[in-house]
Amino acid sequence: MKNLKTGVTIFQLFLQKVISADIPLVLLRPREISEEISYSGDYDFFVHPHYNHELLKIMFELGVETGTSFSISRKKHAKVDINIYDKEDNKVIALEIWNFLSVDDPYGRTQRYIFPNILQQHIQKDKNSFRLSLEIEALYYLSHLYTGKKKITTPLVQERIKYYTLMLQENHDEYYLLFKDLQEQREDIKKVAHKANIILCSKGILKEKNLLNMLEEFPLKYWATVDRTRRMLFKKVRIIPVEGADGVGKTTIVQKIIDEDKKHFSSFRFKKTFRSSPLYRLFLPLLKRRVTKVVPEVEIGKTEIDEVYGEFVLFNALLLFPFRFVSSFFSKKTVFVDRYFDEYLIINLRLKQRKAYLRKNWQSLLKFIPRTYMIFHFDAPTEKILKRKDELNKEGIEAYRNYLFEIYLQKPYRVYTYVNTDTEVEKSVDLMLKIIKGEV
User: Fold this and answer.
1) What CATH number is given for 7-228 in this structure?
2) 349, 399 in Cβ contact below 8 A?
3) Dist. CA 131–CA 121, nearest whole Å
4) Do the domains 7-228 and 236-436 sit in the same CATH topology, yes or no?
5) In this structure, what are the phi and psi dihedrals at residue 349, rounded to the nearest 5 degrees?
6) What letter does residue 241 receive in the DSSP assignment?
7) Helix (H, G, I), strand (E, B), or coil: what is residue 225?
8) Per residue in 138-170, pLDDT tens?
9) What is the C-alpha separation between 294 and 181, in angstroms, rounded?
10) 3-state DSSP call for residue 93?
11) CB 208 within 8 A of CB 194
12) Domain extents for the chain?
């Protein structure tokens, strides 16, 4: 049996599941997958945005199945990053998944983007992977060298130039000569990249720059600018929700972080936000009587009332939570929130006699729920959670786990991290701190 503790093995399983699901995820540049190579640098992929959710669901299901922690970051427009963390020492395998390709022509004669609908038409499938044709992959690599301001002298670039030169030497004279000229320094990267862009234009993959084509790429530029501005604002909100079923170790891990650095970290419970509302206190006796009639089989407390009347809870929280947002702009502390709005979009979580499900109007309610920059979703094997706490039954734990991710997909955070806590507390603490500080 494969060692499921290594990030490399999880990465390989992820790619296998993607192929099995017939998702055309394309590796843009050749890169070996191995214990020696995979933990340095990153893997660049292209996929049509239509497949984003399906792709992320595969990663989530794999994380749950194998107990693997991972992050999903959306720090650039039309780009998703997935970091897979090794179980032993939190080493990272980084995947950068692009929904379009950037082009910076040296002489400004082409569009700045290759759009997904065009690129999708040039993807080929073999037994083990999807890929672009060798010619297009090679031409885009030359263009990328200039766009990414890569140094030709670096070992990795030299290795890839050598690879494409070797692959193109038969039956691809025009493309082979471009790499040969670059390899032997007969032409610089500026001229070679421009020639590659012109060939891409002749193939209909890239378009020449004109007024009509500039108008076509304007929406992408506009939303990229809007997205960048939003990201900068969200990053200043030092509030981090921590969600997960009781028994996954949220309190233990968060408290350890705070105890070690009280100057920069603190926490509060989300339910205190709405339960302190005068409106909530006023209506509580009435709601309790009504819930007793709806759910006569259980003893009714505030938790049961909050679950049944989640819309009322969300309304009260929305009235008061903005004060937390504003104060966080001026605070030097990062504040962990134990649970968040998302949980109250699920009904019957703690009513074990009933099936948990998302509220019928959950998508409408979600539109009003504020998003922070990042969130941590804590989890562990269902059997372990049941041994630690008896708050939820097996069906409730699994519903909670899956619905939280479904809610995330509908309205993403900039950084979503799934933390499997079936390991030493110190490893979970180390991983959280690295993610918060932007070290991984």
Assistant:
1) 3.30.460.40
2) yes
3) 11
4) no
5) -60, -45
6) E
7) helix
8) 999 999 999 999 999 999 999 999 999 999 988
9) 78
10) strand
11) no
12) 7-228, 236-436
pLDDT, mean of residues 4-17 = 89
Q: 3-state class of 247 per DSSP?
A: coil
Q: Position of tokens 């009504």?
A: 290
Residue 265 exposed, middle or buried by CB count within 10 Å (0-12, 13-18, 19+): buried
pLDDT above 70 as % of the chain: 98
Domain 236-436 has CATH 3.40.50.1970: no
Is the Cα dihedral 356, 311, 337, 411 positive or negative? positive
* The pTM of the whole model exceeds 0.85: yes
Q: Where would I find the H helices in 67-154?
A: 116-120, 134-147
- For the record, the structure tokens of 409 come out as 């997909």
What is the SS3 string spanning 151-195? CCCCHHHHHHHHHHHHHHCCCCHHHHHHHHHHHCCCCCHHHHHHH
* DSSP letter assigned to residue 133: -
**Alpha helices by DSSP H, 203-331:** 211-235, 250-260, 271-275, 278-294, 302-308, 310-329
List pLDDT tens digits, range 25-73. 999 999 999 999 999 889 999 999 999 999 999 999 999 999 999 999 9
